[in-house]
Amino acid sequence: MNDFLKSRTGIVLIAFLAVAGFLLAFEHRAHIFTGNGFLIVLLAGCIVMHLFMHAGHGGHGGGHDHDGPENPDRKNQDGEQR
Predict the structure, then answer these.
(1) Would residue 72 count as lying in a domain?
(2) Whole domain around residue 31: which residue ranges?
(3) Is residue 67 part of a domain?
(4) Considering only CA atoms, which of 19, 20, 17 is closest in space to residue 5?
């Protein structure tokens, strides 16, 4: 993914999205800055819930056993077969 963003196509995509975002925000600034306090509260609530929910099960990498019964030949860290 990082290589794509550094390629010519990735740079053009980033520039296009930046210009499109600026023009969209500029054209709709009356809607963005007036009366949308509730939308900002909802988005902030999503961020806070995301942080608290990940704290509950150990973050992005822990607590999940994705191997399950589908891969019975997988070995654990000690080299023993599960």
Answers:
(1) no
(2) 2-59
(3) no
(4) 17
Q: Is residue 28 part of a domain?
A: yes
Considering the domain boundaries, does residue 46 fall inside one?
yes
Quote the pLDDT of residue 11.
Answer: 92
- When divided into structural domains, the chain yields a total of 1
Helices (H), the chain: 2-6, 8-27, 29-33, 37-56
C-alpha of 6 from chain center: 20
Residue pair 18/11 in contact (Cβ under 8 Å)? The answer is no
pLDDT in tens, 8-55: 999 999 999 999 999 988 888 877 777 667 777 888 888 888 888 876
Give the 3-state secondary structure of residue 75. Answer: strand
Global confidence as pTM: 0.41
